Amino acid sequence: ERLHNDFQFIDVGRQDPDKKSIDVRRRDFGEIYEPYTEDQVKNQSHRCLECGNPYCEWKCPVHNYIPNWLKLVAEGNIMEAADLCHQTNTLPEVCGRVCPQDRLCEGACTLNDGFGAVTIGSTEKYITDTAFALGWKPDMSKVVWTDKKVAVIGAGPAGLGCADVLARNGVRPVVFDRYPEIGGLLTFGIPEFKLEKSVMTRRREIFTAMGIEFRLNTEVGTDITMAQLMADYDAVFMGMGTYTYMKGGFPGEDLPGVFDALPFLVSSVNRNLGFEKDPGDFISVAGQRVVVLGGGDTAMDCNRTSIRQGAASVTCAYRRDEENMPGSRREVANAKEEGVQFLFNRQPIAIVGDNRVEGVKVVTTQLGDADENGRRRPEPIPGSEEILPADRVLIAFGFRPSPASWFGQHEIRINDWGGVEAPEQQQYKFQTSNPKVFAGGDMVRGSDLVVTAIWEGREAADGILDYLDV
Ligand code: FAD
Ligand code: SF4
């Protein structure tokens, strides 16, 4: 039993978990953070002020009971903390690793004002990893199984969030995914240095033991039809993500040596995981001068994967300034440490080269008036064009939805940018225009975050339970 210290937040500073040495990080694909020791995590979680009105909870998209589980950790009660984490979050060990905490929970922590926010994300990761190692399992003893079953299309965070809540309420979920492992972009997108793949394998075992069935390597529309799912199940949830790559719309994007971000990242994952079907699919940047275009999480992952593959140099060009980058600041800092060169306020206007890429023509920008989303628009400065030499260019401009050909046949409406219409505010949350079909995650809100996809999947499960009157 520890003594309570009201001034722990002053006596003990914020301390993130230790990182591996830069040397190791530059060639190793494993996660870069070491786990907290028991002492470290107790000291850090004890820094929480237990504010009466915890802003961190509100800023967390799944509204985790953060101060409550921090207190349990400070007291050494990990199993109870893991139970509490799972009341609101389907994948706490994943969110602890990949949420942009500086913009979410930790950004809202009262101590973020000069003292250093409580390390909420790293503690969430510690709780789940430690509880799993101690044999923690979700308590399903009170679940009474009904005769209802729901097909879930997509084993990404949205589909998994939905399946989790359905199973805990006695409705059998059967999850279909075209890929050979669960996780969606958690497995086939986000690199191992942020999220080791064993995390999802372990999760699959836990979900399976909870009564969730997975049918992997099964694409809806090819291996099984939507009509079949509609006939066999009481409802269908779609969490299929967004997979159309955004283009820059400038000359040279089709030159050999230019690649979209996701095929590059997926080819690297497939090689590391042994899922590679044809060695010709692997996109190597070893020994090459790489230019990455974009400033979000995907761009950061391309930068850092290129470093680990042994690129001769990695330059990231972004059209706004550092302040206005959309991704997590922690990952930008990690990329800089690992040797990525950043060129801010540079807008690409062409990819140049004779038969293969030789460089990227960029123009310097200054920030002008705010656009409709309140972000200041980059405006080119005439005469500032320059060419960045490059052997490989990786384009990370984001994703648009990829509506399935069978949506129309099943009266599933999409909006003008291709997103599935499934509003939260209606009688049955996240129901589409087809009453039996629900949807959530990136395919509804556009590319966003793991934690928001989990939230929508969980909320949609509530909508489905109401619809099924369970
Ligand atoms: P997805 O994760 O895309 O999952 C959709 C699943 O549906 C896939 O497994 C797909 O195979 C399956 N599917 C689609 N169509 C079919 C079909 N017809 N039949 C069967 N299966 C189908 N977010 C963060 O919070 N932090 C990060 O650090 C972060 N980094 C990212 C890095 C990269 C490179 C990318 C691309 C995204 C990143 N994101 C990050 C965003 C985050 O990964 C997504 O917002 C989130 O995964 C969306 O979840 P989802 O369930 O909606 O879709
Ligand atoms: Fe923070 Fe994400 Fe965990 Fe919420 S889920 S507490 S935002 S790390």
Automatic annotation (TrEMBL):
It comes from the Bacteria. Residues 148-457 form the FAD/NAD(P)-binding domain. Residues 26-133 form the Dihydroprymidine dehydrogenase domain. Keywords: 4Fe-4S, Amino-acid biosynthesis, Glutamate biosynthesis, Iron, Iron-sulfur, Metal-binding, NADP, Oxidoreductase. GO terms for biological process: glutamate biosynthetic process. It is an enzyme of class 1 (oxidoreductase). GO terms for molecular function: 4 iron, 4 sulfur cluster binding; glutamate synthase (NADPH) activity; metal ion binding. Coiled coil: none annotated. Its cofactor is [4Fe-4S] cluster. Its EC number is 1.4.1.13. Pathway: Energy metabolism; nitrogen metabolism; Amino-acid biosynthesis; L-glutamate biosynthesis via GLT pathway; L-glutamate from 2-oxoglutarate and L-glutamine (NADP(+) route): step 1/1; Nitrogen metabolism. InterPro entries: DPD_II, FAD/NAD-bd_sf, FAD/NAD-binding_dom, GltD-like, Helical_ferredxn. It catalyses: 2 L-glutamate + NADP(+) = L-glutamine + 2-oxoglutarate + NADPH + H(+). PANTHER family: GLUTAMATE SYNTHASE [NADPH] SMALL CHAIN, GLUTAMATE SYNTHASE [NADPH] SMALL CHAIN-RELATED. Catalyzes the conversion of L-glutamine and 2-oxoglutarate into two molecules of L-glutamate. This is Glutamate synthase [NADPH] small chain. It comes from Exilibacterium tricleocarpae.
